[in-house]
# Entry
Amino acid sequence: MIDAQSALASPAVIRREDYQPPDWLVPDIALDFDLDPATTRVTAVLDVVRSSAHGRPLRLDGDGQVPTKVLVDGNPHNDWRMDGDTLEIDLPGSEHRIETEVAIHPDRNTQLMGLYASGGNLCTQCEAEGFRRITFFPDRPDVLARYSVRMTADRKRFPVLLANGDPIASGDAEDGRHWAEWRDPFPKPCYLFALVAGDLSANRATFTTMSGREVQLGIWVRAADLPKTEHALAALQTAMAWDERVYGREYDLDVFNIVAVDDFNFGAMENKGLNIFNSRYILADPDTATDADYDAIAAVVAHEYFHNWSGNRVTCRDWFQLSLKEGFTVFRDQGFSADQGSAAVKRIEDVRTLRAAQFPEDAGPLAHPIRPDSYMEISNFYTATIYNKGAEVIRMMATILGPDSFRASTDLYFDRYDGTAATCDDFVRCMEFGSGIDLTQFRHWYSQAGTPRVSAALDHDAGSGRATLRLAQRTAPTPGQPDKEPFVLPLKLKLFGGETGAALSNEQLFMLDRPTADITFDGVTERPVLSINRGFSAPVIIESDRSSADLKFLSAHDDDPFARYEAMQQLMLDTLVAAVTLGRADHEPVIDAVRRTLEDPALDRAFAAEAVLLPSDSFVGDQLEMVDPEAVFRAREALRRDLGKHLAGLWRSAYANASQAGTFVYSPAAKAARRMRSVALGYIAASGAEDAADVAFAQFEAADNMTDRQGALTTLVNGKSDKRIAALDIFYNRYSGDALVLDKWFQTQALSMRDDTPQVVADLARHPDFSLANPNRARSLVGAFGVNQRAFHMAGGAGYRFLADHLIALDKLNPQTAAKLLPPLGRWRRFDPARATLMKAELERILATPGLSKDLFEQASKSLE
Ligand code: 0A1
Ligand code: ZN
# Structure
């Protein structure tokens, strides 16, 4: 609950070291919902069992309710008390049946946690602690129960009634109502509970599992959206087969349903047998979804499905273990996506996400280990660190173990912990048992925050033919962790001959587990060039003394595509950092390297399109002692302009070649062509070519798919031509009824590099289609603006004020979503004193707001520490 107190008294801190097993277990629960958007009555019958010989009362979590009825063993019971939100009952024996009744109000639930209304339907979100907003229960993931659910609702308004598990029975009730019963045979924590009541239609299919069982699949949406569910349904079937093949995991119920809702705080939720999705990760057709949307849909559908084993069958003991399910499941969905198209491009995208979202988190006031030690509000820990760095940690273990041992170890893990609530350490122990490898020191990845920096210097003595690579690691202090133990860093290395381009060594996996190490290579007869952290084998920052000539060389010759991309990125970064810090830079090496990449006929177009992109403004900013956003913007624009001008002919022909594709198909080759087309268009515009806006506008009008249309719109919205206004109007009118596409309309403008973006964004916040109540819409404007480094940090602090105003307003409706959007303000240490002062003042203003949620309190107070 939000109350006036929480801004005054700091919320309690929950600590990992305080974990105690539950006092009472609940093997079975029967729920009865009398559903209505205004008031829903929930009756819960819990079979409770004392877990050991203790004398403590039964404590059931709630959130803002008081029970309207309590029965113990069938008898009315008055001897209960509320301790804050917790219902406490003294019980004499070791086994009892407890019945409670509460009344809840879905249509007043703007937090979108618990049971809420979205687009006229009713749905639930219980992770992490939403179940207590539905009924009284021990709301912790290590209490696993078998659920029976009965729902009654108006048949007309809510013809479809879904819950976890398998449908058991259904029928008519009085007054135009009907009922349905569902039973889930698999014991689960309450965060995996779900129900949906609504006017929905299903796209149905079946999947036959590896042991020959037939599963009924359904994707439930508004009837009008059914044609947009084909891609998600196909992705689900592909993911189910992939998990059988790659991890030996078979689905376990007779039905698997997915429901899409428009109002959702995160991406999607893996409720047992009944996944609930943000509609942006389900709905797609060529006219409304980009290739990136299609890819994200497949990845999220797979992610939630994979949770059935990594999360549901084996769940988490407590919320400090969140990365046990999330890091592992992200790693699994990354593997799935890599297998669907270009694995190299997928790795590039994943590393880009890590650097954009996780590295800054690890370097800022909200840094935490992938297994945190404490929290005030667990919702604040659904972070890039838990998810994406967590996936990198699993990836490193997979690399160290090798594929066969890794698979044997995951088999062991699933087998040993099936039906239980496990810890990160249980997982690591299985990796050790399955492989015989000692991971004692590796465990620092679970306890220490911060991104390690590895310096690499290569010496070569031509006389003796010996090359020496000197490596050193250090990790800067993070909040609460002044000193770090050395990490275990699996670094893939290779040497190339700087003159001949020949491989001078095989790729080797070197474990850097001390502060420093020297590696020698003999028989090195020519000047060696170092390829290091190939495939991004460790999530670290490499600092090497490689010259631009060496980086240019690697960008053309390295046989690891990721390393090749990385060399180009480093060359670009070095050039941009020199431009910002020295005021000048030689653009020639970058131009030359990009030219070679474009001209190399052997290169996959999808890869080439990614390789020629400059690092983002904010990634360049992250390399600097103190970020000067305008200087970064100018340096990057200047390099873009030079690349555009000097390679004008190549961009034109890349554009023309990529445009030859006929009508829309979603295939790797067609995707690559569309990507190259947008990238080339961007460079044509950056060159200042007179006809750039015409080319973009023509593409915008002729496009038969959203990728080309939005690519053109983005180019126009970043440019000076008035055609952008026409394009924005056409886009708006064409899609005015489609919320997901309108999100793109808001987002594209919020991300614009134009001078007037802060003003445009302020105006858009007053647009009739803007609303903070819908999380997608709030993120598309307020969230996107916060990560637009140039616009957000424009001198004067208007951007900071804008963000703080909207966070304060959003906190009243939806604290979780507000708290997620705060981190850009917490980066004040990285900016000049004038900006830092303005940013801190906004954080202080947020903190001084009466009735602040603990979500926003935790984020803002930690950001000021
Ligand atoms: N477990 C989900 C993420 C998720 C977390 C919290 C939510 O509450 C609003 C919703 C979803 C996943 O990893 O997909
Ligand atoms: Zn997940």
About this structure: The CA atoms of residues 282 and 635 lie 39 Å apart.
